[in-house]
Fold this sequence. Notes:
Helices cover 37% and strands 18% of the residues. It has 427 residues and is of the alpha/beta class. It has a single domain, classed as Rossmann fold (3-Layer(aba) Sandwich), CATH 3.40.50. An 8-stranded mixed β-sheet has the order 2-10-12-7-6-3-4-5. The chain has a two-stranded parallel ribbon with strand order 1-11. A two-stranded antiparallel ribbon has the order 8-9.
Amino acid sequence: MGQFDRKAQSQPKHGKPSSSGASKAAPRPNNGTPEWKGPGYNPKKKSTAVPTVSSAQEPFKLEPSLALGLEQRMLEVFRVTFPASSDFESLKPILYKINDALQRRDLDAAFANEDHLEAYAIRWSPSRALGYAQLLAWICAEKADDTYIQKLLGTTPSESPAKAVCFGGSAAETMAFAGLLRQSRPSEAAGKPSTPATTEVSDSLEALKISATTTDPATTPLFHLNHIDIADWDSVLSKLEQGLNTPPVLSKYASASARATNASFLSPGSIEHSFERADILDSSTEDLRSTIGSAPALLTLLSTLNDLYITSMPRTTAFLKKLTEAAPQDSLLLVVDAPGAHTEVTVTSAEGEEEKRKYPMNLLLDFALVPKATKKTGQKDNEDEQSRPKWEKILEKTSMAYRLREGLRYPGSLENLRFQVHLFRRL
């Protein structure tokens, strides 16, 4: 089973989260003695801190929808695509460097080169890919009547493929959507068996490229996936796409039945991939509109939004407002992050005193996307219309847990996941 750690908890995308649980200290008993309010009485200031969501609360348990065998195949694609995963011990020095850089919020150092990017994908992406895939499958079941979900699942005819734009997305999102399509549309998305073009015993990606020529590509794509990130994930994502579209290389001792059923995880061409390297906080409304397109799309911020808030709350709020203007009607916005994720901000009071306040990520998100409409005296109807929310929150879980099942095998570390989930629909 490899180095599977059942006690591991979910980790945010960049670094270990700070504790956001409520204090467990017992409240001071009230003995009935009134507070002193005589001469010299100085009333205490009321706390302005916003309560955070406690990560210690009992989470909603995400039951698996994807088959166990399908999850194992997803892990195998990671293992074969990135051969360095087979010697996980040798990766630990690089992983320590990455983790240290992320703790210091030095993304340039964390993702300095392709070795770092592949090591990150090997260590953190597999667990998240499984959790995200199960989460997407659960959302599709919960919102099966949604227009976009029906297009994604192929339950309604469409002339164009469903589209997702992953802000801060990388290998985990690619594999998650691949697993969802393989589970929900197997007859269209799954690779078809073919006669191997080589019998060499090899797990290398180069050998996979040779056998890829024997699989016919899909006539039309089922899904378009666009990644945008500040790190250059292009090479890693290209390798993963190749791994998804290529049948496993079999041993020369493999049986005839094994050869007859050997197929790639996905049919080549079933998913169109694209990658854009950019700082999304610098994106204009026009940039976002061009990236998303004119048709409803799924927009994701998976383990990304709280990092953006920590980087800059004003710039992140501005990004969400620009995203609102760019998103076509009926688009979905999926936000996933650690339970209790919050941002600490220094504010100055009217008296000129500085104090630090903690704001829960979900509160900031709601403030930007679904603010409470208030109509002032004398306000015109068109002004009231502009103040109304442009998103509708259609699903929310402040704490969700996905526990990996027994029997999964992977040479690296796997971990259980906990996250908060928010799904919005553009009105």
